Amino acid sequence: MISATTAGLVLAGVLFTLGLISMLIRRNIIFMLVSVEIMLNAAGLAFIVAASKWGQPEGQVMFMFILAMAAAEVSVGLALILQLYHQLKTLDSDEASRMRG
Amino acid sequence: MGIAFYIAAAVAVLSTIMVITRFNIMHALLYFIVSLLSVAVVFYLYGAPFMAALELIIYAGAIMVLIIFFVMMLNLGSQTAGEERSWMTPGVWIGPSVLCLVLLGELVYLMLQPGDLSGDVRVVDPKEVGKSLFGPYILAVELAGMLLMAGIVGAYHLGRQKKKIVHRFLQNAES
């Protein structure tokens, strides 16, 4: 029987790896944004597990900052995707690899 | 850890795998909401009930709804009506519903058995978190406020429909 901290960190690692794999294999920009969310969520889970391991509130404080950052990141990212979609008429990220003035 | 953690972890990993293998963005978002719910259960098991509530309210309630509204607003493809009909088939919603029911059963089990936390998990009070947040970390809170302000301004600036201005020489060259 593994300890609670190990189990939680393994879960966070598995979720982060799944998000990373999705980020690498997907070409739809919205899917890439969602996989960034998966990775941020896994990082927050690791912080919560560490906070419960040490009994200190710092981990949960850091999780609240991750939440605020994720909210700001999603709003700006969605606005960027909207601009890209209006200019390129597609959500394929490879289409945006070349910048034209 | 108890059996509750393993059930929640299995639901989280399963729904995340379903997220990264779906082809339709709406199906993936449904499964991602289930994944967030199960991660919130894991937070509760690790002695952070306030963070579990924040995860539900902000992640599942605000960010996911924002992305779903955005996908609906983009109106991808011309066959949206046919897609809308195909989204309502049982094959779409039966998977997230089953996973949600597993989580609901686990929630009822946890509510009937208080103090299910295992030995090496320490509960951190929301009161301590608040004291720490507005004590030593007050500068970071202000920085987070500035970050959100920059996010609002950036989203407004980028999301605006700009009038396309083309110089007349370039216009002649293009036409």
UniProtKB/TrEMBL annotation, chain A:
Bilayer-crossing regions: 6-25, 30-50, 62-82
Catalysed transformations (reactions): a quinone + NADH + 5 H(+)(in) = a quinol + NAD(+) + 4 H(+)(out)
Species classification: Bacteria, Pseudomonadati, Bacteroidota, Chitinophagia, Chitinophagales
Quaternary assembly: NDH-1 is composed of 14 different subunits. Subunits NuoA, H, J, K, L, M, N constitute the membrane sector of the complex.
A GO molecular function held by the record: NADH dehydrogenase (quinone) (non-electrogenic) activity
Protein name: NADH-quinone oxidoreductase subunit K
PANTHER family hit by this protein: NADH-UBIQUINONE OXIDOREDUCTASE CHAIN 4L, NADH-UBIQUINONE OXIDOREDUCTASE SUBUNIT ND4L
InterPro entries linked to this entry: NADH_UbQ_OxRdtase_chain4L/K, NUOK/Mnh_C1-like
Function: NDH-1 shuttles electrons from NADH, via FMN and iron-sulfur (Fe-S) centers, to quinones in the respiratory chain. The immediate electron acceptor for the enzyme in this species is believed to be a menaquinone. Couples the redox reaction to proton translocation (for every two electrons transferred, four hydrogen ions are translocated across the cytoplasmic membrane), and thus conserves the redox energy in a proton gradient.
NCBIfam families (UniProt xref): PRK05715.1-1 (NF004319), PRK05715.1-2 (NF004320)
